[in-house]
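Quick one: structure tokens for this chain, please?
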Amino acid sequence: MVKVLFFGDRMANTVKFSCENRQHKEANKCPDHPCWCWLSHHTYEFSQEIIPLTLAVWLQAGPREKDTRKIQIQLSRDGKSYETIETLTVPCKTKLYHFVRPDKLWNKRMKFLRFYSPDGWVDYSKGTLGYMIPCTEGETKCVGYDLYKCIGGKWQLVERNSEQCGYVPPECTEGETKCVGYDLYKCINGKWQLVERNSEQCGYVPPECIEGATKCVGYDLYKCIGGKWQLVERNSEQCGYVPPECIEGATKCVGYDLYKCIGGKWQLVERNSEQCGYQPPSPPPAPGIPEIPPWAVLVAAGVGLIGMYLIFGGKS
């Protein structure tokens, strides 16, 4: 006995069957040809009871000498009692394609599918069957992340993206953004992804400078402290400042010469300055009067004193 096996346990299953593949139960009666040997029926048995949803078939009747014959499409749950759901007039020289109306399959259960000719032979059969697997009332199962429940003998979707089926809800709405401190995150594929550290969208104020860096503003030296420029030295030599030689307005003597601090530099303001101890020379004698040497003046003064002593001293 050849059975058509199911392909998994999906909600919308399909299975293909064909006499060419010797899948019908009568195949062992036809050693010379897989499909025809004066058979009144082709019977396909499935591995378990199913609920048919759709059925599309290709059929050919016999004998070839006739034009048409009747072929009935029948379903059975036990392989003994069959229910005819449709009777077709099928050509004997060519194949007929037929799609069974879904309403003819409603509320049916089956394990056997048979094509039966009451007035001839079944020379060819193949098709595609869409089906569901019957379930036990109240039973549940997962299809992907979707949860199904058996209600009224049929699988009914009760929850999409069910956590019972291993679904992990997304952390966020796709494209949404948020801030964690100054860092900007964006929702990508349901998860928060860091897209920018120290983002201005999150209130981050970029530092004015690189920590420890220095710069000059004029002669003043600034340093980057805590991300901001701080004045650390006015009139810094690092910034090209040249200290003044002196205090503005101060004076000094170099020999007898007087210097004054003007514009930070010593400037000569007076040579031979009396402020620096300079004594000018005596003025020269008047013209025509001979110069009397100092010693002559002293001698004359001494002579005068002696003379006065003799005059006045002698009288007494």
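The first strand starts at residue 3 and ends at 4.
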